[in-house]
Amino acid sequence: MAVLPAQDRARTAAQWMRDNATTVAFSKAQLIAAINAVDDWAEANATSYNNALPVAVRTNATTAQKALLLAYVCMRRAGVLRAQED
After folding, report:
1. 8-20 pLDDT, tens per residue?
2. Mapped to the 3 state alphabet, what secondary structure does the chain carry?
3. I want to staple 57 with a disulfide (CB 3.0 to 4.6 A). Which of 53, 64, 71, 82 is the partner?
4. What confidence tens digit (pLDDT) does each residue in 61-81 have?
């Protein structure tokens, strides 16, 4: 996967602002810079992430499935992903 185009990065920031329910101490420009940094980090570390996955997942999951797996784990760690089992 390549880094997100500028429009997708801006839309990600806009959605984050809509979803965030707490006050923040940074500007929209600083949020965009953070979105850019996270996206660049994901691109730079994609190989490391892929290598950390169990072989069966690494070789059989699509790039989109691997990205969703990471997103689900991060969302759960942030306390925003709930499962039916909760």
Report:
1. 999 999 999 999 9
2. CCCCCHHHHHHHHHHHHHHCCCCCCCCHHHHHHHHHHHHHHHHHCHHHHHHHCCHHHHHHCCHHHHHHHHHHHHHHHCCCCCCCCC
3. 53
4. 999 999 999 999 999 999 999
Residues with Cβ within 8 Å of residue 31, at least 6 apart in sequence: 13, 16, 17, 24
Residues 76, 29, 43, CA angle at the centre, nearest 5°? 50
Q: Could you give the C-alpha distances from 83 to 61, 77, 86, in angstroms and in order? A: 21, 13, 5
Question: Domain extents for the chain?
Answer: 8-16+24-77
User: How many residues in total does the chain contain?
Assistant: 86
